[in-house]
Write a sequence for this structure.
């Protein structure tokens, strides 16, 4: 193939590396009102009185809004297909504030200084209420996070606001209890993962202005332009026809920007004042009031025989959605569906969950979307099982892991139509030198070197739900415009989708101009999330380009005076095989602009009844200091099956980046609350994302399968790559010390204290 | 307070507030490559040169630049493009938001140490955070750039 599977440079790369003004705040109108939020200092409180008169007198203050000023219909900020599984539990501003950081007032002014002063002198009297801060006690707690009657759930997800339940469900196949009781061995574990922050380098930000027609234009750093249009319409109570949403370059998303964290505030300001406005979250706001990973406690039981045969898996997940339910009902499902399904021929499985409200920051979508938490728990339990059986954990996996052609009962009974997990495992083993290094080597200086392993799977889009579309049109000179609604957030989808188009149209990559994304101009796309863009939108690009080829052939044949069945298109000209007559693409394009009745433009949509999983194996070698408990990563090996990589460079960097982010979750990134519910890790001082000194060396290889239903055999890559570090590192620590760390992050303190306890 | 500085080769006279931060001053003067990723001097995105040395513009008062020379990526477009292409060939620019700060600091490193080891590179750039790339691709790009410079026989890269 000429373009697909080639390591071409991203189309926007040179603009990015030379620092061109392509991000939201580089493009916002200069006269924007500055919008900031006054936030609640209490985890649970009612606003009794709020006085803004003194603040309004500050020169430059344009408007201050409180709960009395906003529409009273509830909505969700989750970027999901309508009807959203996430409950409608938000107002733009609510009299009832539900976490430390919940917005109390919106302040807009001409200068930042004026706005900052106003924020300081707004007087609020709160009736402070008892908060629910321990998610173990949330279900059926007498304190309700959402006691209000106007709360509603649009989908049957088991939500009940009178029980602090955002969702609950239960599924099983086979007789779990009897299979477990018949097993030689049942290994159990309870695991705790934190509400990690995506911590993309560009914080949440949006600007708004009214256009010639009085429509609200929203330029936002978002993954979900079409969902933002609906969310703002719901929040402001204005028709969608009055709203246009577009995105510039995005400074990282990782799912954070699959929730409309900040859009509604400047949208409300601009709609009310008719003036342009912008909001830019500080890093502190991005840490304390955004959309992090759902904190989860996952209980796992695995039943197996002495020969290593795994017969049954039981998973129960308790998920903390925080004060609001964004992505609560859906993230939790992946903790079971994408962990249990790694193991084949189970005689029984059970997966149950509760998602509860608490008075902490609302959670959201973060790369891995629940699978990360579930895989940490299940993969660690499988490693414990291997230890109990005195078996090599790689051999245990070889014996039990899912293989191509297997039906996966816990994955909606889908078949693993493409699966190179076995090849990933054997290649990773070879790369790291597993057989020589497992389980550990004492270096004789107080240090131990050890290895750890984990597997991972994800999906490629949401089956039967996600829609990707592409419009491709022929312009003068025989060049094309590809219009999409998917959001390139650094992942490079503008380029990879152009590669697909160039491949389909037999043209140069430079002949494809990509436009994304604008609700007025782009064809509908659910947005870039759920690892959908390459597989779902990529499929739409193939369809659209194939149709356009037919149209070009038809038009060329017509110009030559033949029927389309006698003509062929080779990307440069339409020609008749029999006679040798031909007409160039440029001429066809030019002729399509005079006296033409048939647009040389095609829009196609694509969806998929299945969500073919990409697979991955991660292996790590660490050096652990037994005295201090500190860990150095010596080598991290990741081998991924993403089907055909559309662009091997970008697939590799996605993998390296996902592994580094996963290492951050495993080793460094902690979330701690004060007893009153205030988040302590509110800056990059306290929330330590890895620097280049902290991730060791990462080596990645791609072991491709071929997914028939994907564009040129492609599956997804974006999320599967974040899941292995936590279980692999916990495993390596156990192999070095015998200690199993069940709560992330794995800190030196936990290891050192654990070893001390061991000694006593 | 009135200050005079040289910004990307051009003299600038400006009346700035005492509490104005250099990052805001630079963005107000069209240097949009300068990004803010945190408010705590942790991320390195706002790196610029003050009299040729890399500094964090989020942590420097504008008045401190009086009589000095400030350079941003806008003033180093040739170097940025030449070196940046090597990052881009790895696909390691990703979202691009951290690129200007990292590239500024990399240029500073090349000037100080034209032949760094991998460890020296990682140490020099440790203050430049990136959440997308996992850093490996950046290192490959830097290595490829240094190899290219060596093959051209250029001992000192990115001369001022």
């Amino acid at each position: 193939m000429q373009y697909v599977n080639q390591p071409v440079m991203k189309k926007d790369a040179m603009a990015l590396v030379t620092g061109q003004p392509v991000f939201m705040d580089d493009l916002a109108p200069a006269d924007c009102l500055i919008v900031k939020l006054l936030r609640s200092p209490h985890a649970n409180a009612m606003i009794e009185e709020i006085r803004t008169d003194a603040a309004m007198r500050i020169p430059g203050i344009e408007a201050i809004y409180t709960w009395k000023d906003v529409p009273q219909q509830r909505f969700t900020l989750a970027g999901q297909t309508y009807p959203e599984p996430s409950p409608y539990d938000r107002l733009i501003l609510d009299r009832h504030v539900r976490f430390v950081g919940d917005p109390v007032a919106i302040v807009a002014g001409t200068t930042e200084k004026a706005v900052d002063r106003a924020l300081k002198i707004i007087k609020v009297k709160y009736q402070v209420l008892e908060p629910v801060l321990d998610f173990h006690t949330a279900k059926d707690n007498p304190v309700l996070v959402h006691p209000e009657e106007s709360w509603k759930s649009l989908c049957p997800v088991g939500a009940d606001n009178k029980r602090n339940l955002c969702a609950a469900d239960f599924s099983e196949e086979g007789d779990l209890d009897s299979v477990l009781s018949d097993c030689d061995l049942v290994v159990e574990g309870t695991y705790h993962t934190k509400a990690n922050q995506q911590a993309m380098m560009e914080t949440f930000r949006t600007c708004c202005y009214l256009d010639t027609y009085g429509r609200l234009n929203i330029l936002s750093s978002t993954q979900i332009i079409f969902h933002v249009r609906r969310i703002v319409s719901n929040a402001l109570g204005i028709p969608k026809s009055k709203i246009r949403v577009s995105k510039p370059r995005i400074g990282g998303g990782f799912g954070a920007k699959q929730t409309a964290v900040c859009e509604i505030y400047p949208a409300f300001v601009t709609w009310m004042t008719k003036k342009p406005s912008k909001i830019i979250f500080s890093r502190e706001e991005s840490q304390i009031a955004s959309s992090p990973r759902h904190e989860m406690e996952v209980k796992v039981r695995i039943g197996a025989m002495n020969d290593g045969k795994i017969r049954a898996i039981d998973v129960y997940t308790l998920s903390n959605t925080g004060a609001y339910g964004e992505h609560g009902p859906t993230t939790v499902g992946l903790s079971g569906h994408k962990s249990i399904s790694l193991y084949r021929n189970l005689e029984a499985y059970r997966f149950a969950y509760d998602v509860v409200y608490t008075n902490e920051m609302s959670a959201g979508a973060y790369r891995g979307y629940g699978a990360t938490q579930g895989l940490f728990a299940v993969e660690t339990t499988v490693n414990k099982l291997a230890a109990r059986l005195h078996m090599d954990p790689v051999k245990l996996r070889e014996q039990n892991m899912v293989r191509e052609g297997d039906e996966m009962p816990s994955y909606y009974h889908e078949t693993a139509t493409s699966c190179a997990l076995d090849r990933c495992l054997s290649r990773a083993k070879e790369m790291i030198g597993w057989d020589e290094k497992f389980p550990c080597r004492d270096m004789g200086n107080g240090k131990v070197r050890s290895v750890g392993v984990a597997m991972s799977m994800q999906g490629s889009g949401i089956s039967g739900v996600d829609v990707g579309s592409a419009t491709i049109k022929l312009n003068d000179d025989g060049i094309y415009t590809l219009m999409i609604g998917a959001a390139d957030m650094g992942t490079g989808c503008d380029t990879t989708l152009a590669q697909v188009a160039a491949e389909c149209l037999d043209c140069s990559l430079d002949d494809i101009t990509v436009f994304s994304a604008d609700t007025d101009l782009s064809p509908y796309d659910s947005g870039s999330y759920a690892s959908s863009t390459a597989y779902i939108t990529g499929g739409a690009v193939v369809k659209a380009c194939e149709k356009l080829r037919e149209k070009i052939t038809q038009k060329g044949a017509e110009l030559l005076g033949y029927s389309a069945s006698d003509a062929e298109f080779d990307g440069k000209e339409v020609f008749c095989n029999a006679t040798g007559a031909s007409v160039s693409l440029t001429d066809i394009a030019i002729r399509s602009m005079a006296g033409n009745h048939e647009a040389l433009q095609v829009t196609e949509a694509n969806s998929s009844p299945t969500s073919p999983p990409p697979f991955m194996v991660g292996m790590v070698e660490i050096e652990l200091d037994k005295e201090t408990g500190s860990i150095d990563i010596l080598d991290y090996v990741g081998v991924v099956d993403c089907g055909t990589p559309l662009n091997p460079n970008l697939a590799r960097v996605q993998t390296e980046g996902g592994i580094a982010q996963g290492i951050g979750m495993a080793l460094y990134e902690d979330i701690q609350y004060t007893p009153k519910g205030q988040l302590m890790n509110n800056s990059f001082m306290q929330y330590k994302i890895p620097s280049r000194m902290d991730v060791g060396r990462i080596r990645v290889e791609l072991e491709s399968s071929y997914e028939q239903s994907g564009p040129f055999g492609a599956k997804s890559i974006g999320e599967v790559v974040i899941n292995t570090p936590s279980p692999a590192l916990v495993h390596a620590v156990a192999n070095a010390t015998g200690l199993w760390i069940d709560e992330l992050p794995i800190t030196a303190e936990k290891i050192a204290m654990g070893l001390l306890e061991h000694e006593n | 307070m009135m200050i005079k500085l040289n910004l990307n080769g051009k003299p600038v006279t400006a009346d700035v507030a005492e509490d104005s931060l250099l990052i805001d001053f630079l963005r107000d003067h069209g240097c949009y490559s300068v990004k803010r990723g945190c408010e705590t001097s942790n991320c390195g995105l706002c790196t610029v040169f003050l009299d040729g040395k890399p500094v964090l513009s989020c942590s420097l008062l504008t008045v401190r630049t009086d009589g000095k020379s400030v350079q941003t990526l806008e003033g180093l477009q040739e170097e940025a493009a030449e070196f940046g292409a090597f990052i881009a060939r790895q696909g390691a620019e990703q979202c691009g938001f951290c690129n200007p700060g990292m590239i500024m600091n990399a240029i500073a490193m090349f000037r100080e140490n034209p032949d760094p080891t991998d460890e020296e590179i990682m140490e020099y750039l440790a203050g430049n955070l990136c959440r997308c790339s996992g850093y490996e691709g950046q290192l490959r790009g830097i290595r490829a750039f240094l190899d290219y410079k060596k093959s051209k026989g250029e001992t000192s890269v990115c001369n001022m």
